[in-house]
Amino acid sequence: MLPGMHDPMWSRIAVWGFAVLLAVLAGWLDWRSRRIPNWLTVSGFVIGLSMNTALWGWSGFKAGLEGAGVALGLLFLPVLLRGMGAGDWKLMGALGACLGPWGLLQVLLVSIFIVGLMALVEVVRKHRIKQTLGNLRVLVHAFITFGMGVREGMVTLDNPTALRLPFGVAAALAVIILVFTKSTLKTF
């Protein structure tokens, strides 16, 4: 433990504060270029894991690894099926290293809700409801069968007509919403 960091509330605030910084920078980069660079995700992972270790010792190190593992494990299939970018995947791994498994799950659930709203707005705005429902059928079939036998009509990020949403922006908004919620409810 670092000297002077005996109050667990301040330790959690420091970790969530770094997560906000990481997520906002990633969201901004994702918004501008639709890419989240490796230098950001790898350094975020290392700093998040280091902060947890410095603040909580071995249990913090384990929580950081568990958080990263949960993120990378849960999102592996969408990345493998090309429904999510690798930068988004690595960002969630870095956030998991910062926030541990329970914090990561909160961020992931709120991020999925936000990106779903973003997708709904884009689908309606671009008049692509019918095409989107057909794509959704293909993706659900691929998910259920683990991608077996679903090569024709496969929906991936490689498709130039696919809507691309900046998941990093959704993750940044999720982290900010959770920090405001936690600070308002005093649940840090």
Task: Give structural notes.
With 188 residues, this protein is mainly alpha-helical. It has one domain. Helices cover 76% and strands 0% of the residues. The protein contains six helices and no strands. Helix 1 (8-33) packs across helix 4 (86-125) and helix 2 (38-74) packs across helix 4. It is globular, with a radius of gyration of 18 Å. 32% of the residues are buried.
How much β-strand is present in the residues?
under 5%
Tally of individual helices: 6
Radius of gyration computed on alpha carbons? 18 Å
Outline the low-pLDDT stretches. Answer: none
Q: Could you tell me the mean pLDDT?
A: 87
Main sheet specs: none
The total number of structural domains is: 1
Helicity range: over 70%
Main structural class: mainly alpha
Write out key terms for the chains shown.
single chain; 188 residues; mainly alpha; 76% helix; 0% strand; globular
Secondary-structure topology with pairs:
Blueprint: H1 8-33, H2 38-74, H3 76-80, H4 86-125, H5 129-144, H6 167-185
Helix pairs in contact: 1-2, 1-4, 1-6, 2-4, 4-6
Summary, kept brief:
The chain is mostly helical and 188 residues long. It has helices at residues 8-33, 38-74, 76-80, 86-125, 129-144, 167-185.
